[in-house]
Every structure is written in C-alpha cells, then in structure tokens.
Amino acid sequence: MGSSGAFHSNGVSMILKVARLGHPVIRTPARPVPVEEIATHDFQKVLDDMVETMHEYLGVGLAGPQVHLSLQVAVLEVQGHPRYPDMPSVPLTYLINPKVTVLEDATVEEWEGCLSIPEMRGLVPRFSKVRVQALGRNAEPLDFVAADFHARVIQHETDHLNGEVYLDRMRDMRTLAHLAEWQRYVLPALERKG
Ligand code: NI
To answer: CA distances (Å), 182 to each of 16, 45, 111, 116, 167, in order?
Structure first.
C-alpha cells in the first residue's frame, strides 16, 4: 500500500496484445472479478497494463476481453483526444463488474470504431443516458449517471464484457466504412455540417 492507501502495482506497465474480432475471447461473455482479487498485485498490474495499452493505441476505452482477459473490467479515458478533439473529457475510470441501467430510451447515432475491429467506422445508436454501478480500482463502489459521449463509451465497453461489439448494434450496415475512406468521404460532410 502507498501512503495514499490506494491499491497499486509496482508501476512498470506493459502494452498488451489486442484481440481482434474473430478471436473467440471477443465473443465470450466475461466472468465477474472476485472482489478479493481486486487488491492483488496481479490484478492491479492488469489495470496498469490496460491503461498503457489504451493510450498506446489511442483508444478512449478498453475492455478485458480485448486484451485476452475474459474478466468484467474496463478502463476509459477521454482527454484532448486527437480522434475526438471536440468531445467532453472523461477522467480515467476503472469499471469492475459494471452494471448499466438505461435511464433514457431515446437513442442517438454517432460514429464508432473499435481497437478489435481496426481501421473501420460505423454509425451506432446508443442510449443517451445511463446509470453505471461498478467497483473502482480500489474496490470502492461507483454509482454515477453518464450522458451523451460518456454514456456511449460506457455502452461500447460494457458490450465487450457481454461478448458484443458495435457491429451488433448498427441499424444500417451500409454505413460501415474503412477508416481511410471514412476520412475521405464521410468526415468532410460531417465537418461541413459542423
Ligand atoms: Ni471496442
């Protein structure tokens, strides 16, 4: 334990290999993390490695199954992101065994990508407001409401914990595009709309 009393590992973190769509772990519902495991050095190291991996690949979130770890854990962070410069920031958050409750049935469509489905973008409907109950990095209970882009990232990551990916949520598969073509043909139209 550090002087802050917070759980931590030894501070040496690694970039993990990202599982891509087609690897069975991406389609396997993850098992809950036993609460007593959260404080262990091994699990704390996993959390550090997930953050390191998310930063390396410029993700705004990363779920356990995406690093071959079939555990209900996800990390998320949005801060001055090059891909989402206009998006409100989301502080670094650890979600362990999260439960998501939809607070507003209305959905909003926005473009999403996924580190496990590289170089693709698709238009995905998400609920605009959700309640999240989870445990944090120090096994502390979290209970908060997330809206808009924050709610979108949480729904994307918690879908991964259920073996689901954004393609499963798309209403119109014809919006699916390779990133280079999306940047060339879709993005200019979005920027014109402002
Ligand atoms: Ni993803």
So the answer is: 27, 36, 10, 18, 16
